[in-house]
Design a protein that fits this description.
Number of domains: 1
Distance between the termini: 12 Å
Strand order of the largest sheet: 2-3-1-4-5
Structural class: alpha/beta
Shape: globular
Number of helices: 7
Length: about 180
Amino acid sequence: MRRYILTGAPGAGKTVLLRALERAGHVVVEEAATDVIALAQAEGVAEPWTDPGFVDAIVALQRQRQARASGDLVFFDRSPVCALALARFLGHPVSALLRAELDRIAAEDVYRRCVFLVRSLGFITPTAARRIGLEEARAFERTHEEAYAELGFELVPVAPGSVAERVEAVLAGLD
């Protein structure tokens, strides 16, 4: 199974790109953070990312989704490496669960080493889950780049462009 990660800053267009890949017939796996945030907010927690267990909730949901994914070619909207970047960006410690998941994906070679870094479109559309400004998003993107590089992944930039251009860039970059 070939499993590829799409990563990048909030608002870069990863979800739209994922939808287009799905529409083209590819298996896709949703990112977990938005769903963790939505559930927590529905339960009355206004800013769930301030909770020390926030990153672990994301990691647990990512693991469930990764385990259910099947198909020869699968695209993931984020990964545990993104959770590492998030923990660092938020100033949360790297938990035992996150460390174990990072060790597991390395030992089991879960994802391809080629990771698609979806570059910022140059603007941010705020949502209930996305309360980050453009400059913060750019810093967060750099945190992702550092985390992936540290763990030996090769980042393949996906430049801003039309959805079709971005899909073409991802498909052309498959190893």
